[in-house]
Design a protein that fits this description.
The chain has 345 residues and is α/β, with parallel strands linked by helices. The chain contains ten helices and eight strands. Strand 2, helix 4 and strand 3 (111-116) form a beta-alpha-beta unit. It is globular. The model is unreliable at 1-24 and 26-33 (pLDDT under 50).
Amino acid sequence: MKRFFALAFALLILSASSCEQPEPEPEPEPEPTPVKSDFAKGADVSWVTEMEQAGCKFYKADGTQSECMALLKSLGMNAIRLRVWVNPENGWCGKDDVVAKAKRANALGMRVMIDFHYSDSWADPGKQNKPAAWKNLDFAGLKKAVADHTTDILNALKSAGVTPEWIQVGNETTGGMLWPDGQNYTDAGFASYVQLHNAGYTAAKAVFPSAKVMVHVDNGWKWETLDWFFKSFKINGGQCDLIGLSLYPEKSNWQQYNQQICENIKKLYDLLGKETIVCEVGMDWREAAACKSFLSDLIARSLESNSHCTGVLYWEPEGYEAWSKYSKCAFDNSGKPTEALDAFK
C-alpha cells in the first residue's frame, strides 16, 4: 500500500512539474533607426523678399503672423536655399538680395545653400541662357566669368558673416549650362560643360574650402538619364562633393518615384562615391495630404543609415499660387502652410 501511495505521489509531482512553463525570454528591443544628426530639412525661399515688397504676409496655422524663415524653422526646417542670378532686371536674386536673405537665415541659425544659375533669369533643363554681359565672350572668357561671378558672390557672403554649407554650380544642368557653349548633347559639348562647371567648383572651393560643392540635375527618379549624365561627368573629370537631385511627383505616382530615387541615390554612390541631397521637391498644394505622405516617406527612407541621402528641401513652399501662379507650393492662398509641411517636424 505504501508503494501505491509513493507511486501516486511521484506521478502527481511529475504531472504538476510537466504543466509548468518556463518563463519566456524577453523579446529583444528593436534596434532604433540611426538618425542622421546633420540631416538637412529645408526650403528654397528665394521669392520671399519680392513677396514681402508686394505686401504678402505669412501666418502660422493658428493665424499668428510670422516672418517666413522663422515660420519654416518652427515647422522643423534647418536649411535655406537661395538662387543667384547674375544681373537680374529687377534686382531680385541678384547679389544684394541674396546676401540680405542669407543674413536673415544665418541669424536664425539655419544652414545656407547657394544655387548659382549663371544666368540673368531662370536656368533649367529647358533653358540655360547666358547672362547678357557674357554673350560675346569666347570660351576662355566664359570660364573666367563663371569663376569671377562665383568668387564675387561668395566673397560678399563671407564679408556679411555667412558661410554657406553647400554651393551649387549650375541649376538643373542635365543639358549643360551657358548654351550653346556648354550644351552637353555631344561628347565635345559635355567636355565643354564640365570645364565650365569645374571653373565654378574651383572658385567656390577657393573662397569656402569646407563647403560641399554640388552638381544638380532634374528627374531624380529617372535612372537612364542619371546614368548617362554622371558617367559622362566622371569620364570628363567633373568635380563635385555632393550630388543634387530634383523630384516633382504627382499624387498618383509618388510611391513609385520615391522608390526609384532612393535606388538611384545608392547607384550614384556606387558610381561616384558621392552622397546626394534632394534639393528640390514639390507637389500640388491642393493635394496636401498626399504631399505630406510623399515627404514623410522620402524623409524616412533618407534617414535610413545606408541611404546616402543627406537632406530634403522643398522648392518655394511659401510662394502661394494666388501670388506666384505656381501650383506646387505648400502654403494656401491665405499665407498659411498646408499640412504637407508637417512632414518636416
